[in-house]
Amino acid sequence: MSKEYKILNSINNVNDIKKLSQDELNILSVEVRDFIIESTSKTGGHLASSLGVVELTIALILTYDFPHDKVIWDVGHQSYAYKVLTDRREAFVDLRSYGGISGFPKRNESPYDSFDTGHSSTSISAGLGMCVARDLNKENYKIVTVIGDGALTGGMAFEALNNLSKLNSNYIIVLNDNEMSISKSEGGLSKALLGVRSSKRYSILKNRLKNKLEKNKIGLFFKRILITLVNIIKQISGSYGMLFENLDINYVGPIDGHNIDELVSAIKKTQKLNEPVIIHIKTVKGKGYAPAENNPTKFHGIEPFDISTGEIINKSNDLTYTKVFSNKLLSLAKNDERIVAITAAMADGTGLKEFSMNFKDRFFDVGICEQHAVTFAAGIAVSGIIPIVCIYSSFLQRAFDQIIHDVCLQNQHVVFAIDRAGLVGADGETHQGIFDIAYLRLIPNLTIIAPKNVKELESMLEYAIYGISGPVAIRYPRGIAYNELNDKDEKIILGKSELIFDGSEIAIVALGSMVSTAVHLRDRLKEKGISPIVVNARFAKPIDYEMIDRICNSNIKKLVVMEEGVKNGGIGTDIESYVHDKRYNVEVMLITLPDAYVEHGNVSKLREALSIDSLSIFKKICDE
Ligand SMILES: Cc1ncc(C[n+]2csc(CCOP(=O)(O)OP(=O)(O)O)c2C)c(N)n1
Predict the structure, then answer these.
(1) Helix spans in 558-602 (H)
(2) Structural domain of 109
(3) Does 104 contact ligand 1 (Cβ within 6 A)?
(4) pLDDT at residue 417 above 60?
(5) What is the mean pLDDT of residues 26-48?
(6) Structural domain contains residue 610
(7) Is residue 421 located within the same domain as residue 528?
(8) I need a surface site. Which of 19, 277, 302, 589 has the fewest CB within 10 A?
(9) Residue 250: helix, strand or coil by DSSP?
(10) Which of 475, 508, 535 is the last residue of a domain?
(11) Which CATH number does the domain housing residue 605 bear?
């Protein structure tokens, strides 16, 4: 890389870091920050979270032997310093771009990555499983997990904490507490941690004595008395480490997460315990870069930016689907007090910020808790209040059972606003919204709709709230909203598609984001003298079979069905088997995403690579 980094450039192997003096380590943390800021300013990425854990990363490298030992980064968005200092510094030029390194830990990217992450709150479970496997295999490497206070709000993290006390070997969980999720951390846990932050530091005295005393019988008796005494003292002195201690998990902290010395000393001491330990560290999100420290939410995930000002380069003022949804929901909520909005820690991403400011009592940020969000909504819906549950497609996967069991089985009027449906781009495999059509279509009672453009998203939201009495999901993609075809605006009727262009020979039925591709495809086909029918499917469920009958009973020879989702379980396979069962003499061509995980990269590059762009589809039609 262009800059002269005195210490960073001298690191050829992660173990070189262990040879550095204290002063050199401090310089290294400045240089690593500088490097991450510099490269993220060009590629975009998760900056603020990564800046917050630079000293922690160095301390972990000093106290563990990676890749023999294993670290699990929860969510994994904060792993940039780790990637830089292990084996991927040079690869940062292509961070998150097609063919380049991922912004999240990936086992197939490096031996230093021990577990793939991307979705929140998995790390304690994964680490615990790895500990158990290590012990069963009688191996001797160490395992450490890093989890943020935001990720700790997720139910899975609590399930894992509950399971931890059974482990009789060392497992350190570093709780990286910066008081932030993407926005400010919400809820009772955050308040409890606030108590811990202000409490006196609690040492591991209990454990050290406990371990010594356990060695003989009299000791065991005194151990019980001692633990009781320590607990009483802690409760009196207000040590909120009790939160974890009551779950029978050792607790150390809070520790200054920007002090390498303190971190190393805490890790070294706790590595000696044959039990799980939580080391609670306090960090500043965005540390070392003023614009990120001042606005960690903006710099949580950032587009390329100007380092001197922190301003996004090429900031687009184009209307996004998120913004369209946000505006429409706001205007509907102004006239209807029954409308409430729920987010799982994604108020900004899902466009609920303004709603939260306008309707404080009707806005609920439940933390990174998609499952709870959905059942919470089901509870709300029982009394006639109308919950709008705003969750990204890939994160809603978490709540599959809650949608089935708590919402749809009871036919509850819950509206799912599913943002980031389809390809999302740079965040890659864990974040692509490509499964929702398939997994939602399985569920009885659920209506699934997808808008073709700005205007239709508005009318679909209104329809979902007032036109349907049961559960309904609206899926719409990330990014700039399609703002054409506004003259095509038929009233929405349950299970009815919309004929956009009549034609002959070929019919195209497209769902949501694929309608614009269908229109481009039509333009290309028209140049070849073919004028296809174009249908906006509108409903992924129920499917408009009447329209399929109409198409198949006309002079159509080829029916192209297009959707931005996996093939299995999609509308395409459903329509294909319908056409087959009815013995129509029409060839069905399915344009879908493959039944596979889709890597990271620019969305239009991915479309081309996956052959769902209009040119690839055109070529496929012409080749047949
Ligand atoms: C299941 C799931 N829901 C939502 C997200 C989006 N998300 C990514 S990071 C993040 C906040 C994490 O906060 P924290 O763990 O405190 O880490 P910090 O960024 O503050 O370091 C959220 C909500 C996700 N990755 N996974």
Answers:
(1) 571-581
(2) 8-201+250-294
(3) no
(4) yes
(5) 98
(6) yes
(7) no
(8) 19
(9) strand
(10) 475
(11) 3.40.50.920
Interacting residues of 294 by C-beta distance below 8 A, sequence separation 6+? 286
Are 285 and 334 found together in one domain?
no
- Shared domain for 109 and 140, answered yes or no, is yes
Residue 300: inside a domain? no
Question: Quick check: is 311 in a domain?
Answer: no
Query: Which of 49, 368, 395, 427 to mutate to test ligand 1, by most ligand atoms within 8 A of the CB atom?
Result: 368
Measured from the CA of 345, which atom of ligand 1 is nearest? Answer: 23
The string of DSSP letters for 331-344 reads: HHHHT-TTEEEEES
Looking at the fold, whether 465 and 389 belong to one and the same domain comes out as: yes
pTM of the model: 0.93
CA of 296 to the centre of ligand 1 (A): 13
CB distance 190 to ligand 1 below 6 Å: no
Which sequence positions are flagged as catalytic? Answer: 285, 370, 398
178 CA closest ligand 1 atom index = 20
Same domain, 431 and 536: no
Apex 483 CA angle, 325 and 337, nearest 5 = 20
Q: Residue 228: what pLDDT?
A: 57
Least confident segment among 216-225, 404-413, 453-462: 216-225
Backbone angles phi, psi at 438, to 5 degrees: -65, -50
Nearest-5° Cα angle at 469, 466 to 470: 130
Pick the residue whose CA is nearest to atom 23 on ligand 1: 345
b/e 302-312 (16+ beta carbons within 10 angstroms → b): beebeeeebee
Separation of alpha carbons 559 and 579, rounded Å: 10
pLDDT for 336-385, tens place per residue?
999 999 999 999 999 999 999 999 999 999 999 999 999 999 999 999 99
User: What CATH number did the domain enclosing 268 receive?
Assistant: 3.40.50.970
* Same-domain status, 516 and 401: no
CA–centroid distance, 153 to ligand 1, in Å, is 10
pLDDT in tens, 504-546: 999 999 999 999 999 999 999 999 999 999 999 999 999 999 9
Instruction: Indicate if ligand 1 lies below 6 Å from the C-beta of 431.
Output: no
95 and 234 assigned to the same domain = no
**Cβ–ligand 1 contact at 398 (below 6 Å):** yes
Q: Is the CB of 73 under 6 A from ligand 1?
A: no
Q: Which residues in 274-411 belong to E strands, given as ranges?
A: 276-282, 339-343, 363-365, 386-392
* Cα–ligand 1 centroid distance for 114 (angstroms): 19
- The structural domain count of the chain equals 4
Q: Do both 514 and 464 map to the same domain?
A: no
Which protein residue's CA is at the shortest distance from atom 16 of ligand 1? Answer: 150
- Read off the pLDDT of each residue in 156-162 and give the average, rounded to a whole number: 96
- Pairing verdict, β 386-392 and 339-343: parallel
Q: For residue 197, is it within any domain?
A: yes
Instruction: Please give the residue that has the higher pLDDT: either 188 or 75.
Output: 75
Report whether residue 322 contacts ligand 1, using a CB cutoff of 6 Å: no
CA of 121 to the centre of ligand 1 (A): 8
Task: Determine which helix (DSSP H) or strand (DSSP E) holds 498, and give its type and residue range.
Answer: strand 498-501
Distance (Å, rounded) from C-alpha 566 to C-alpha 564? 7
